[in-house]
Amino acid sequence: MPQSVLSRARLEALLPTPITDRILEELLFGSKAEVAGAAGDELTISVTPDRLDLLSEGGLGLYLQGVLGVAHGIPKKPPAAGHAKVPSFRVDASVEPIRPAIAGALVRSPDDAGLDAGTLAEAIRVQEILHATVGRDRRAASLGIYPWDVIEPPVRYSLEPLADVAFVPLSEETEVRADRFFTDHPMAERYGALGRVGGRCLVLRDRRGAVLSLPPVLNARAAGEARVGHRELLIEATGREARPVREAVGLLLVVFAARGWSVSPVAVEGPGERRDDGRAVVEPHAVDLPSALVRAVAGDPLPSSEVLRRLARCRLGGHATEAGWRAEAPPWRPDLLGPIDVAEDVYLAAPVAVDAGVVPASRTVGRRRGETLYRRRFAERLIGLGLTAPHTSLFVSSEVVARVGGPEPIRLRNPVSTEFAYLRDRLFLSHLEVLERNTRHGYPQQFGEVGPVIVRAPSAESGGETRYRASLVIASESAGFADVAARVDYLLGDRDVSGVREPAEVPGAIPGRAARLRVAGETVAEMGEVHPRILTELGVPVPVAFAELDLSALWPLVAPRDGP
Amino acid sequence: MAGGEEEPSLGATPVSLSTPERSVLLALRNVEDGPVDEEEIVRRTGLASDQVRGTLQRLRSKHLVEVAEEHLTIRSLTPRGEDSRLRGLPERRFLEAMLRHGGALTAEEASAEGLRDEERSAAIGILRRRGLLADGLPFRLRAPDAAPTGPFPEELVLGQVADGVGEADEAIVTALERRGLVREEHRSRKHWSASEEGRRLTLAPEGEPTLGPLTSSLLASGEWNLRSFRPYDVRAPVPFVTGARPHPYVAWLEQFEEVLVGLGFEQSEGPLLETEFWNNDVLFMPQDHPARSIHDALSVEEVEGHLPPPELLARVAAVHEGRPMPGESEAVGPGWPGRYDPRIASRPVLRSQTTPVSARFLAGHPPPPFRMFSLDRNFRREEVDATHHLEFTQCEGILGEEGISMRHLVGIFRELARAIGIRELKIRPSYFPFTEPSIEGYVQHPQLGWIEVFPGGLFRPEVTRPLGVEVPVIAWGVGVMRLAMVSLGLHDVRDLFLDDLRRLQGGR
Fold this sequence. Notes:
Number of helices of chain B: 20
Oligomer: heterodimer
Shape of chain A: elongated
Distance between the termini of chain B: 30 Å
Largest interface: A-B, 96 and 99 residues
Helix content of chain B: 25-40%
């Protein structure tokens, strides 16, 4: 779950009174955020991935205001101040192949003090969260925050030859050429490929040519560094597609909107005749909520006034319509994609009454799968034979696979360790590991298990097939082939099946002391004595015989009788 | 059955022992002046000492003889000790050489007198500690008449140790041990005697044949009726035998299934190795979702997957891209950013949740009402520790029919909690890409407090519509491992994969 450390003081500044940890936890239980830790001024908050707005003091503060009843609906928009300069982006056709989407907003402080250190820190922290989440590590969207007073619109977004670009990177003193920057700078090493193609790179410049940034890599120092005291900020995001870019801008706006900053759209012009006034990025979007859907979700109809009250509590706007309601969601609620999403907010805006939960009358017949019951009967028979039942994992180690040899099982591409590196294709592999882990105990040892394996199956949808096997292992001074063969005969006989044993090479078994068993031409079992080389390597001091039945192969043969 | 050993009996019934046992026991019964050692028994029975030793152990296990152990400390001179006894201790030889040289001695003169360097050093140290030597060189007596007249105490003790007589001064013995002149060995000597049982035992006459194990030939011949059976030692150790029982975790899972079957749910199952289509796409998980990355999902090498039926693929692709599905005029929803990539859809991946089983079930167009559950293994790329494992069990359940709502999901949660003995339940909002609303049920556990156990919700239309399902479907995926750990009293998730045979035989 996404997580961030918030300032308790900044959060409480948005609330009527300070709140204790316990009350905060209780208030957040009804939300998609929770307190993961609290120490001094630091509040660690984790949220579900759809509510990133709650990772900022602004967003969480707005939510808590609604829960506490001190504010409701979408925060009132301060009257838009007239801007001396009209913000706009002019997009050059050259960016189309690499990162064509751009969106922005202009935010203005409600007072002359402008940007304070806390809001700046919050904005930068949220910016980084958005890079990692919505932005998919800046691939889908990356954000920039700029001081508007030093920028001369329009801001031009284009792909320029590296040789033509020189700028002072953020937090540095000296100017560097872009070709050098892309070679040497650590940020370019990490994100350079996203903002550069061949000998050209993405650049944002204002009308005078001052470089704002090299998206999505790094801002420039002069025009690209927001500082305490700035009264107007330009927020910008670029990416491959419009939606995550708009979502990123919208989510960042909550930091400012919660503190009364005014928000204005930034128009996007070009390439060619294209023009977008940018309002969709900063204005609430409407979602129709049919009353039938609310009833279908909650199980009961809700009075219209209650639905509107809940929308307001969620800090959403709304009004009744003929078919239900029309909700309005602010830009920092991109999770509200459609009616069902708004219905969720309405349903969960009040505590879910556990006592109101009812189990619907059953009009179906519960049952287990016939094949599951059949497998379970084998497991019972193994226990009846006195075989202890381990429960082993599907994963086996590289070591045991190398030790046994034979066809290689399916290997994990991204294993966490060599201990769990392969998917077993025989229970035998897991059971060699069981033998190795039990050498400290005395003998005889005998155990058996019914469990899944995965075998290569090129024609299967996933390229592998899940099959179920029953395995039995006997380790004792006198264990031998006949012991396991006799038990296999018993297990098959129990299902009225008899087969024919034939000599076979079974990996891990002593040559000449292994067999496969066929029923109606189908191999349904293999058995043998474990090779002494393997026993020596495992540290097992007594002979071991093993058998493995392919229950999935056997099932079609017995299904008419064993099935439900 | 027993280990084949004879069981002597008390009282009038004559019992039979093996010939050596009989000989040794009789020899000990005949001893009148107390316990004897093995050598004496050898002498009295004429048996080999090895045979006597083994026989004594068997008789002891039958409680017919007793043993008293005597611990001895044996001191002797080391080769250097023997040398000092013959030629004199180094300090004695140094003193005598000094006297021969008129009361003063140089190092060279000491060497010429046969004192090795280490002997000279030891001698000088001892004589100085005793105040006999003056400071400075050459070495001189502190006073002309300082030389002792009698033997040193060490010389007396060396003699006592060598001869094995007298009470040696322990402090001097210890000092001589430290100088490597005396050594000490600890031995024990066993003294055997017949026990009370051994003395009272009535022995069968020698040579009377008895029967060992009952055999089929004895039964057939009737010979068992002509001779007595040799009794077994019922107290002798027996081979280790255990029973088998179901694995406790597997048994717990089967019990949990009962609850769902009782609520009218039908079991379903799906492949453990899935394609990304069934594991994610059909569940409306965006193709660039972080949980699908190589850091979270387990993928496999050198295996190629295939796409689902083209009609289904087209419907799911349309939903992801926010387009109307083929044959429809309106999109189900706005979809996700980016183009849907079928190459991702066909990639094999280990199932990371049981929800693909639900999707496959729904794709089979079950007629409503339907209830399905699947309790099975799933896999995530986790480091293995006390609370995490690559493999975890989830219980997936879905219920679809007209009029089904979140109230019913809460009701199911409450019923499941009640079935495992938990009364307190509370619900909070949650998030899953495939359900909306999404909730999480927390239960109150006496030791762990509130723990999240029941995640679930109402399947999004983006999930049900492409699969052709028109009724609302509630779904949940219970993390049963945690419940099982609580129920079985386990604190380490690895214990659910218990394969310690001894522990499994003993129960939990």
